[in-house]
Amino acid sequence: MSRSRSNGLRVPDALHHEWPAEREWLERLPQLAAECAAGWGLELEEPLDTPRSLVVPAGDAVLKLNAPSHFEADHEADALAAWNGHGAVRLLARDDERRALLLERCAPGVTLAESDIDEVPVLAGLLERLPHTAADAHPFRMLTEAAERWAVEVPRRWEEGGRPFERSLLDAALDLYGSVDRDARSLVNQDLHAWNVLRAEREPWLAIDPKPLVGERELDGVGPLRNAAFSGERAQVSRWLDALTSLGMDRERLRGWGIAHALAWGVDANGRWSTLSIDAARTISRA
User: Sign of the CA dihedral 252, 214, 70, 159?
Assistant: First the structure.
Protein backbone atom coordinates (compact mmCIF):
# COMPACT_ATOMS: atom_id res chain seq x y z
CA MET A 1 0.00 0.00 0.00
CA SER A 2 1.13 3.55 -0.71
CA ARG A 3 -0.08 7.07 -0.21
CA SER A 4 -0.42 9.35 -3.21
CA ARG A 5 1.03 12.84 -3.27
CA SER A 6 0.25 15.87 -5.39
CA ASN A 7 3.19 15.44 -7.77
CA GLY A 8 2.36 11.79 -8.46
CA LEU A 9 5.07 10.14 -6.35
CA ARG A 10 3.64 7.48 -4.06
CA VAL A 11 5.16 7.23 -0.58
CA PRO A 12 4.90 3.65 0.72
CA ASP A 13 2.79 3.19 3.84
CA ALA A 14 5.68 1.24 5.34
CA LEU A 15 7.63 4.50 5.64
CA HIS A 16 4.78 6.13 7.56
CA HIS A 17 4.69 3.17 9.94
CA GLU A 18 8.47 3.19 10.40
CA TRP A 19 8.91 6.95 10.89
CA PRO A 20 5.77 8.31 12.61
CA ALA A 21 7.83 11.08 14.24
CA GLU A 22 9.19 12.24 10.86
CA ARG A 23 5.93 13.73 9.59
CA GLU A 24 7.57 16.80 8.05
CA TRP A 25 10.10 14.67 6.18
CA LEU A 26 7.38 12.30 4.96
CA GLU A 27 5.38 15.24 3.64
CA ARG A 28 8.45 16.66 1.90
CA LEU A 29 9.56 13.38 0.33
CA PRO A 30 7.81 13.89 -3.04
CA GLN A 31 9.38 17.33 -3.39
CA LEU A 32 12.81 16.10 -2.29
CA ALA A 33 12.65 13.28 -4.81
CA ALA A 34 11.55 15.69 -7.55
CA GLU A 35 14.46 18.01 -6.77
CA CYS A 36 16.92 15.12 -6.94
CA ALA A 37 15.37 13.90 -10.20
CA ALA A 38 15.73 17.36 -11.73
CA GLY A 39 19.30 17.78 -10.54
CA TRP A 40 20.45 14.34 -11.67
CA GLY A 41 18.32 14.05 -14.81
CA LEU A 42 16.26 11.09 -13.59
CA GLU A 43 12.96 9.64 -14.72
CA LEU A 44 11.54 8.23 -11.53
CA GLU A 45 9.62 4.95 -11.55
CA GLU A 46 7.34 3.45 -8.91
CA PRO A 47 8.94 3.48 -5.40
CA LEU A 48 9.79 0.13 -3.84
CA ASP A 49 7.81 -0.89 -0.78
CA THR A 50 10.67 -0.42 1.67
CA PRO A 51 10.23 0.62 5.33
CA ARG A 52 13.53 2.27 6.22
CA SER A 53 14.19 4.62 3.26
CA LEU A 54 12.45 5.91 0.17
CA VAL A 55 13.88 3.85 -2.70
CA VAL A 56 12.89 4.80 -6.24
CA PRO A 57 14.25 3.05 -9.35
CA ALA A 58 15.22 5.36 -12.19
CA GLY A 59 16.54 3.60 -15.29
CA ASP A 60 20.00 2.22 -14.56
CA ALA A 61 20.08 3.93 -11.17
CA VAL A 62 18.19 3.99 -7.89
CA LEU A 63 17.38 7.10 -5.87
CA LYS A 64 17.47 6.61 -2.10
CA LEU A 65 16.44 9.15 0.54
CA ASN A 66 17.13 8.51 4.23
CA ALA A 67 15.11 9.89 7.12
CA PRO A 68 16.77 12.69 9.14
CA SER A 69 16.73 10.62 12.35
CA HIS A 70 18.00 7.45 10.67
CA PHE A 71 21.19 7.65 12.71
CA GLU A 72 22.81 4.47 11.43
CA ALA A 73 22.52 5.64 7.79
CA ASP A 74 24.54 8.82 8.32
CA HIS A 75 27.68 7.38 6.70
CA GLU A 76 26.14 4.98 4.18
CA ALA A 77 27.42 7.08 1.26
CA ASP A 78 30.90 7.26 2.79
CA ALA A 79 31.08 3.46 3.10
CA LEU A 80 29.94 2.91 -0.48
CA ALA A 81 32.48 5.47 -1.68
CA ALA A 82 35.23 3.69 0.26
CA TRP A 83 34.22 0.32 -1.18
CA ASN A 84 34.12 1.82 -4.70
CA GLY A 85 32.07 -1.00 -6.19
CA HIS A 86 34.24 -3.84 -4.86
CA GLY A 87 31.55 -6.28 -3.75
CA ALA A 88 29.00 -3.51 -3.21
CA VAL A 89 26.73 -1.27 -5.26
CA ARG A 90 28.44 1.78 -6.70
CA LEU A 91 27.65 5.23 -5.37
CA LEU A 92 26.94 7.39 -8.41
CA ALA A 93 26.14 10.69 -6.69
CA ARG A 94 25.18 12.08 -3.29
CA ASP A 95 23.31 15.06 -1.89
CA ASP A 96 24.05 15.25 1.81
CA GLU A 97 21.71 18.18 2.44
CA ARG A 98 18.75 16.12 1.22
CA ARG A 99 20.20 12.86 2.63
CA ALA A 100 19.94 11.48 -0.90
CA LEU A 101 22.05 8.87 -2.67
CA LEU A 102 22.07 7.88 -6.33
CA LEU A 103 23.07 4.23 -6.56
CA GLU A 104 23.86 1.66 -9.20
CA ARG A 105 20.75 -0.38 -9.96
CA CYS A 106 21.05 -4.12 -9.49
CA ALA A 107 19.31 -6.35 -12.03
CA PRO A 108 17.46 -8.59 -11.52
CA GLY A 109 17.81 -7.36 -7.93
CA VAL A 110 16.60 -10.50 -6.16
CA THR A 111 17.88 -10.66 -2.59
CA LEU A 112 20.16 -13.49 -1.54
CA ALA A 113 17.60 -14.35 1.14
CA GLU A 114 14.93 -14.92 -1.50
CA SER A 115 17.11 -17.13 -3.69
CA ASP A 116 17.86 -20.82 -3.29
CA ILE A 117 21.59 -20.13 -3.02
CA ASP A 118 23.56 -21.08 0.10
CA GLU A 119 24.21 -17.68 1.69
CA VAL A 120 27.29 -18.66 3.71
CA PRO A 121 29.85 -18.88 0.87
CA VAL A 122 28.32 -15.85 -0.87
CA LEU A 123 28.49 -13.57 2.17
CA ALA A 124 31.89 -14.92 3.20
CA GLY A 125 33.16 -14.17 -0.30
CA LEU A 126 31.87 -10.62 -0.10
CA LEU A 127 33.50 -10.14 3.30
CA GLU A 128 36.82 -11.16 1.76
CA ARG A 129 36.41 -8.63 -1.06
CA LEU A 130 35.02 -5.56 0.68
CA PRO A 131 37.89 -3.15 1.49
CA HIS A 132 38.51 -3.02 5.24
CA THR A 133 41.21 -0.38 5.57
CA ALA A 134 39.91 2.91 6.91
CA ALA A 135 41.81 6.02 5.88
CA ASP A 136 43.59 7.92 8.64
CA ALA A 137 41.21 10.87 8.21
CA HIS A 138 38.00 8.88 7.85
CA PRO A 139 34.46 10.25 8.48
CA PHE A 140 33.07 7.17 10.24
CA ARG A 141 31.98 6.70 13.83
CA MET A 142 34.23 4.57 15.96
CA LEU A 143 33.18 1.29 17.56
CA THR A 144 34.72 2.60 20.79
CA GLU A 145 32.18 5.48 20.81
CA ALA A 146 29.29 3.13 20.05
CA ALA A 147 30.40 0.69 22.75
CA GLU A 148 30.52 3.48 25.34
CA ARG A 149 26.99 4.52 24.37
CA TRP A 150 25.69 0.93 24.43
CA ALA A 151 27.29 0.33 27.83
CA VAL A 152 24.98 3.02 29.21
CA GLU A 153 21.88 2.48 27.06
CA VAL A 154 21.55 -1.32 27.20
CA PRO A 155 21.47 -1.73 31.01
CA ARG A 156 19.20 1.31 31.34
CA ARG A 157 16.78 -0.15 28.80
CA TRP A 158 17.04 -3.53 30.52
CA GLU A 159 15.92 -1.99 33.81
CA GLU A 160 13.22 0.16 32.20
CA GLY A 161 11.95 -2.84 30.25
CA GLY A 162 11.42 -4.90 33.41
CA ARG A 163 14.62 -6.96 33.07
CA PRO A 164 13.29 -8.97 30.11
CA PHE A 165 16.23 -11.37 29.92
CA GLU A 166 18.74 -13.00 32.24
CA ARG A 167 21.46 -10.95 33.92
CA SER A 168 24.16 -13.27 32.52
CA LEU A 169 23.28 -12.18 28.97
CA LEU A 170 23.51 -8.53 29.94
CA ASP A 171 26.86 -9.14 31.66
CA ALA A 172 28.21 -10.82 28.53
CA ALA A 173 27.31 -7.74 26.50
CA LEU A 174 28.80 -5.36 29.07
CA ASP A 175 32.05 -7.37 29.02
CA LEU A 176 32.35 -6.74 25.28
CA TYR A 177 31.51 -3.05 25.53
CA GLY A 178 34.12 -2.65 28.24
CA SER A 179 36.87 -4.62 26.47
CA VAL A 180 36.56 -2.98 23.03
CA ASP A 181 39.88 -2.81 21.19
CA ARG A 182 40.67 0.90 21.04
CA ASP A 183 43.43 0.41 18.49
CA ALA A 184 41.37 -1.50 15.89
CA ARG A 185 40.89 0.41 12.62
CA SER A 186 38.92 -1.89 10.30
CA LEU A 187 36.04 -0.48 8.27
CA VAL A 188 33.18 -2.83 9.17
CA ASN A 189 29.50 -3.19 8.36
CA GLN A 190 27.02 -3.84 11.19
CA ASP A 191 24.24 -4.94 8.83
CA LEU A 192 25.58 -7.30 6.18
CA HIS A 193 23.14 -10.19 5.76
CA ALA A 194 21.26 -12.03 3.03
CA TRP A 195 18.46 -9.42 2.78
CA ASN A 196 21.08 -6.74 2.05
CA VAL A 197 22.74 -8.58 -0.83
CA LEU A 198 21.26 -8.36 -4.33
CA ARG A 199 21.71 -10.38 -7.51
CA ALA A 200 23.36 -8.17 -10.12
CA GLU A 201 24.86 -8.18 -13.60
CA ARG A 202 28.22 -6.48 -12.97
CA GLU A 203 28.96 -9.05 -10.28
CA PRO A 204 26.88 -12.06 -9.22
CA TRP A 205 26.06 -10.48 -5.85
CA LEU A 206 26.44 -6.95 -4.46
CA ALA A 207 26.05 -5.65 -0.92
CA ILE A 208 23.72 -2.73 -0.22
CA ASP A 209 22.66 -0.54 2.73
CA PRO A 210 25.83 -0.54 4.86
CA LYS A 211 25.84 0.60 8.49
CA PRO A 212 29.55 1.33 8.93
CA LEU A 213 31.79 1.69 11.93
CA VAL A 214 35.56 1.65 12.34
CA GLY A 215 36.88 -0.82 14.88
CA GLU A 216 37.25 -4.57 15.41
CA ARG A 217 36.95 -6.72 12.30
CA GLU A 218 34.63 -9.10 14.18
CA LEU A 219 31.80 -6.53 13.88
CA ASP A 220 31.52 -7.70 10.27
CA GLY A 221 30.08 -10.92 11.68
CA VAL A 222 27.19 -9.50 13.69
CA GLY A 223 24.75 -9.32 10.77
CA PRO A 224 25.20 -12.93 9.61
CA LEU A 225 25.17 -14.23 13.18
CA ARG A 226 22.09 -12.23 14.14
CA ASN A 227 20.10 -13.35 11.12
CA ALA A 228 21.17 -16.97 11.50
CA ALA A 229 20.14 -16.83 15.15
CA PHE A 230 16.70 -15.47 14.25
CA SER A 231 15.90 -19.00 13.04
CA GLY A 232 16.79 -20.37 16.48
CA GLU A 233 19.13 -22.93 14.91
CA ARG A 234 22.37 -23.13 16.85
CA ALA A 235 23.88 -25.33 14.13
CA GLN A 236 23.56 -22.51 11.59
CA VAL A 237 25.11 -20.03 14.00
CA SER A 238 27.98 -22.45 14.60
CA ARG A 239 28.44 -22.82 10.86
CA TRP A 240 28.72 -19.05 10.57
CA LEU A 241 31.23 -18.94 13.41
CA ASP A 242 33.31 -21.52 11.52
CA ALA A 243 33.10 -19.56 8.26
CA LEU A 244 33.99 -16.22 9.83
CA THR A 245 36.84 -17.75 11.82
CA SER A 246 38.25 -19.11 8.55
CA LEU A 247 38.48 -15.48 7.37
CA GLY A 248 40.85 -14.71 10.24
CA MET A 249 38.37 -13.44 12.82
CA ASP A 250 38.50 -14.46 16.47
CA ARG A 251 35.75 -16.93 17.34
CA GLU A 252 35.11 -15.74 20.90
CA ARG A 253 35.09 -12.07 19.91
CA LEU A 254 32.63 -12.98 17.14
CA ARG A 255 30.35 -14.74 19.60
CA GLY A 256 30.68 -11.93 22.13
CA TRP A 257 29.94 -9.15 19.64
CA GLY A 258 27.08 -11.21 18.24
CA ILE A 259 25.44 -11.17 21.68
CA ALA A 260 26.36 -7.58 22.49
CA HIS A 261 25.21 -6.18 19.17
CA ALA A 262 21.93 -8.10 19.11
CA LEU A 263 21.09 -6.46 22.45
CA ALA A 264 22.38 -3.04 21.37
CA TRP A 265 19.99 -3.15 18.40
CA GLY A 266 17.27 -4.98 20.34
CA VAL A 267 15.10 -1.99 21.27
CA ASP A 268 12.80 -0.09 18.90
CA ALA A 269 12.25 3.68 18.72
CA ASN A 270 9.55 3.41 21.39
CA GLY A 271 11.82 1.61 23.85
CA ARG A 272 10.22 -1.83 23.39
CA TRP A 273 12.50 -4.84 23.54
CA SER A 274 12.38 -7.25 20.61
CA THR A 275 11.88 -10.84 21.78
CA LEU A 276 13.42 -11.90 18.45
CA SER A 277 16.63 -10.01 19.25
CA ILE A 278 16.74 -11.36 22.80
CA ASP A 279 16.28 -14.92 21.56
CA ALA A 280 18.97 -14.31 18.91
CA ALA A 281 21.43 -13.23 21.60
CA ARG A 282 20.60 -16.38 23.58
CA THR A 283 21.08 -18.61 20.55
CA ILE A 284 24.45 -17.03 19.73
CA SER A 285 25.59 -17.46 23.35
CA ARG A 286 24.86 -21.19 23.19
CA ALA A 287 26.31 -21.93 19.74
Answer: positive
Rounded CA separation 152/61 (Å): 41
* Distance linking the first and last C-alpha atoms of the chain: 40
200 shares a domain with 92 = no
How many CB atoms neighbour CB 190 within 10 A?
A: 20
The one catalytic residue in 78, 191, 209, 220 is 191
CA distances, 150 to each of 46, 164, 190, 267 (Å): 38, 17, 14, 11
The yes-or-no verdict on residue 1 having pLDDT over 90 is no
Distance separating alpha carbons of residues 32 and 66, to the nearest angstrom:
11
Of 45, 79, 104, the residue at which a domain comes to its end is 104
Q: Are residues 211 and 187 in the same domain?
A: yes
Residue ranges making up the domain that contains 90:
2-104
The β-bridge relationship of strands 186-189 and 212-215 is antiparallel
Active site residue 60: no
- Nearest Cα residue to 143 out of 190, 82, 81, 193: 190
Residue 251 pLDDT grade (very low, low, confident, very high; cuts 50, 70, 90)? very high
Predicted TM-score (pTM) of the model is 0.92
* Number of other CB atoms surrounding residue 252 within 10 Å: 10
**Same-domain pairing of 74 and 128:** no
Spell out a b/e string for 9-31, using b for 16 or more CB atoms within 10 Å of the CB, else e: bebbeebbebbeebeebbeebbe
* Whole-number Å distance between alpha carbons of 170 and 121: 32
Look at strands 197-199 and 61-66 and give their pairing.
unpaired
pLDDT at 7 over 60: no
Query: What is the 3-state composition of the chain as percent helix, strand, coil, each rounded to the nearest 5?
Result: 45, 15, 35
Indicate if 139 and 200 belong to the same structural domain.
Answer: yes
